[in-house]
Every structure is written in structure tokens, then in C-alpha cells.
Amino acid sequence: MKPLLHSLALVLTCAAFAADEAQVAPKPEAAPATTGGAASTKRFTFDCEKWAEGVPPKEVFVVDGTIKIAKKDGSKAIMIDPSPIVDANAQLGDSSNGTASIEARMFASKKGRSYPRFGVSVHGMSGYRLIVNCAKKEIELIKNDVTVKTAPFPWATDTWTRLKLEARQVEAKKWLVSAKAWPAGGTEPAEALITHADDTIKGQGKAAIWGTPFSEQPIYIDDITVEVTTK
Known about the structure:
mainly beta, globular, Jelly Rolls, 7-stranded antiparallel sheet, 50% strand
């Protein structure tokens, strides 16, 4: 009988000790919650001086046309070769999933009565483009090959022009597109030359540079900055 009572007492003692341990032992911390898709902004600045002349680096994804790295005015720049004459374009930076902007400095020349076109775009091939129509001396805001708005711009041959295009998401389905152009040696205008509201933008795709060398003269691009919102 005594051995049985001793065993029972030992079991009760161990159970009480385990209960005390459970009360004082710290509970494991819960894993932190994740937001799953918080937006962030990425900024890309492209320095052509770091690139070798010739074939462009992988950062410059050529979609159409002949595009190279070449010397211009003693410095390196992206060059759109006039052969063949097509709507040459190349994409830069990450794909956006929201607000996007691009700024660039571009050089073009006319030849006789032939004038080039050049510009920048956001949100991929179907996104908005800001194009300098040199023959008409105006800038054009274009989407899906349709000119949405225009504004006068006093372009001059053999000069550098700075362009800036932004498509900004102001609400869930509301966007404001703004476009600026000014002589590269001048001051950026305080107000956009073109603004346009749109509630159909998908907000996805890469920024790009464009050039159509109708004048059979090369087009040069430098000092490119791209900002995109990603999730």
C-alpha cells in the first residue's frame, strides 16, 4: 500500500510543478503583421558618362530603332541614329504601379524643310507621351497615338531642350497628367504647359525616350531621371 501512495504523491508533485512552470514561462511573441502591398517610390538617374560608346547597356532597353551611346559636345549621350527613320524608343527604370515621371535633356536638328520629333513617355507603350513637334513648334500630349492636347513651344534647331512628364494619381481612379518643356539653359517653368485629367489610366509600365529623325540627323538624350511608384 505504501509504494502505491508514494507513487501517487510523486505524480501529483510533478503535475503541480508543471502547472507552476506554465504560469511563469514567457509566451512566444506573435509574428509582426505585414501590409502586403505598401507603395514606395523609386528614383533612377542615368549617367551616360559611365557607359562605353556603342551598344547601350542593359539599363536602356531598346524597343525600336537604332540607339547607341555616342559623344556629343564632349560628353556621352544616348543617340538615336537616323537610319532607319522610325519612331525609335527605349525604356528605362522599373515598371510603375502608380504615379510615374520622367525628365530628360534632348538635342535635335532640322535639315532643310525636314524636322524631327522627340519626347518622353510614362506607363509603357499605351501610356502618355510628351512629344516636341518641331515642324509645328508645339508640344503634344499623346495617348494611344491620339493627340489629346497641344501647347505652343518655341523650339530652335541645334539646341538642347529639357522635357518633364508626370502622371500623378491624386485619388483611387483620378489622375493628373502634366507636361513641361523649356530650353535646357533656362529655368524650369513654374506651371505646366499642359495639364490633363484622366480617370482611365491603368498606371502600369515603364518610362521611355522617343525620337523620330525625319531630318536624317541624330537625336541625343542625356540627364535622364525616372521616378516610379511600385508596390
